[in-house]
Amino acid sequence: MERAVFLRSPWSWLIFAVGLLMCLTGSAGAFSEDTDSVDDWIMVAMFLIPGGWALVAAPFAGVRVDGNGLRYRGMAKWTTLPWSEIDSVEAEVIGGSSLVAEAPCVRTRDGRTLSLAVLAGYQGMRTEANARVRAQVLTVRRARASAHARGAAAP
Hints:
four-stranded antiparallel β-sheet
């Protein structure tokens, strides 16, 4: 794999929209003439801070896959893994009884597990595999195999 591929979930845009709505609500409270007590400013901050975070982080959330490895940018965690550290990539089911999601999961050679939760495909209570998530897992596997074929990483 010579060129980089950026994998993302359509849920990132929903998070962006919710963040924008929270920022607009917080801004309306901040510029309101009725905002005069500490409690009002705490409420404004409760909208502006997480809304601003979602607004800034959501457009960049995803996984970049290239010849060197993968770079994960989640909403709260960013990490880079070279292909030499990655042992396998699988699709795993996460969630409970009412909401189930399938997300790519990277297992490293030293036994750590990194769930690529920002790529999760939510299925509700259905049990069939998520086609988008499975396609993303195959993309990462192909990139890893290509890197091994070029000798960029130990198999």
